[in-house]
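chain below, 394 aa
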Amino acid sequence: MERRLDHYLERLVSPDSMTFYKALCDFADERIEPNYLEWERNHDLLPQEIIDEMGQMGLFGVTVSEEFGGQGGNQLDLILMGLALGYHSQSLAITPGAAMSLGAKPLQLFGTEEQKAAHLPDLAAGKRMFVFGLSEPGRGSDATNPQVTAKKEGNDWVIKGEKCWSTNAKWSSHVVVHALTDPDSKPGHRTTCFIVPMDNPNVSYQEMAGKDLWSQSSTGSITFDDVRVSDDAILGKKNEGFKVMAKTLNGGRLFIAGMSLASLAFALDKCRIYSQEREQFGVPIGSFQRVQDVIIDMDITLEQGLTWLIDLTNRYNDNTLDRESAAKVKIECSRKASDHLTMAMEICGGVSSLDEFGLIRHHRDLFVCRVGEGSNFALKGFATRPLMPDITLQ
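prediction:
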């Protein structure tokens, strides 16, 4: 299927970037699309052979420097990967995407040279994977006050509590735990991040049952039962875990915006082709103004979203991206894509409910984009603060 997405990307990125993007599109078309429906119907996670193949392609080291065995790419390469793989499946895209933006990235940004040397080569090769332990059963948007605690006992830190909604938990070798270490300090200086091995005997993982979106992605609950680690496990500085979390999520929100646009791009292509083939009242349904309205609205949103996202991604690479802009593009792309998917399914009718048609998968998965990396409702309040600095916003 011709991708309208490519038409806009060619205007926005370099020929070398398009070559990289096209190679990933070919991989998804050849290795994923023919098999995905079977995995979906069997409720299988992505097969290990696919994860291994992505590792061999270097997808788990896209933004890792060549010094540590990575591809030496930047955030734009990561976004292009999300667009290429997310077109068929967000579950596919988020697996290397979260491994990079939530796993390797905080280590790249805040790790010591010893920590980088110990982990980045295996992370880049796909032999190791980090999961970011942030969300909790009792904490979602209020992530600055985790219920997981880390208390100093002698020379050790003792970590206790539970993380949930942890992407890639099944395949991960280590978890970056965001824990409360100084509850009496001011907001933003109460938490610390720790690198904890998943094979620690006091760490237990369980795949979260009943999830009906991102179905081929691992989403786990991770419990810490008095896990002991030393100061060497601290990622960043003590009581500056919020800084690690905020900087990490900034790039992650761009990736979520990209996956939202990938789902929208799939829906646009599916609808514009189907509306030329499906006939009612003796004419293709694409002849009707209402159908044309839906299709052109999707196309406008795709072009606008890509233009905005690529601009912010370039600013991220230049280290000039503010947190509010990352939040806004994530809010708008996920919201608009989700709304358009509902209309796309309506103009295609009953066939939209069939898994083989593909729209229902993207419709479900877009819900995660609305609540993942910070819920849109919470992020709206956060992004509004610079607009009204003289009052306290709740």
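The chain has a mean pLDDT of 94. The chain has three domains: 4-124, 130-239, 243-387.
thats it, cya
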